[in-house]
Amino acid sequence: MKNHKVVQLETPHTQQVNVNRQVRRRVHVRRCERIVAAFLLIFLFLGFQIVRSRHSLAKVNINIHQTEVQLASQKAKGRELNQQVKQLHDPEYLQQVIRSKYNYSKKGETVYNLDN
Fold first, then answer.
1. Residue 77 φ/ψ, nearest 5 degrees
2. How are the residues of the chain apportioned to helix, strand and coil, as percentages rounded to the nearest 5?
3. 8 A C-beta contact, residue 8 and residue 14
4. Phi, psi angle pair for 111, to nearest 5°
5. pLDDT tens digit sequence for 46-92
6. What pTM, to 2 d.p., does this model score?
7. Residue 55 CA to its chain's centroid (Å)
8. How many CA atoms lie within 13 A of 104 on its CB side?
9. Distance (Å) of CA 81 to CA 44, 75, 77, 99
């Protein structure tokens, strides 16, 4: 329990000390507000940078996936073409292709085309 018998004197010196204390308190509060504002701005800026970099990373990952799909497709097409090249080196297959595609016939052979 406080003792209410003691009263602070209101002399010009104590008034000046109180004013100085209030001024220092306001300066301190203002300084703290500025520091918090600066940290908030830095936090927002860095957060924005992180969001942008994640967005860019997602785009790059999508492009990588699309490129991998295209690469797989091209590899499959290349395997098919290599298979065709191997088959074209086979004389029997080559003769079969020439006969069916270009209606080629040997001497003395008659070719009949029947429509289905």
1. -65, -40
2. 75, 0, 25
3. yes
4. -105, 130
5. 999 999 999 999 999 999 999 999 999 999 999 999 999 999 899 89
6. 0.55
7. 4
8. 9
9. 55, 10, 6, 21
Structure tokens at 43: 């936090």
Which tokens is 92 given? 């029997």
* DSSP letters spanning 52-79: HHHHHHHHHHHHHHHHHHHHHHHHHHHH
Chain CA centroid to CA 74, Å = 25
- How many H helices and E strands in the chain? 2, 0
C-alpha to C-alpha distance for 62 and 69, rounded to whole angstroms: 11
What's the alpha-carbon Rg for the chain, to the nearest Å?
A: 45
The reported pLDDT for the residue numbered 1 is: 55
Token digits of residue 105? 């016939």
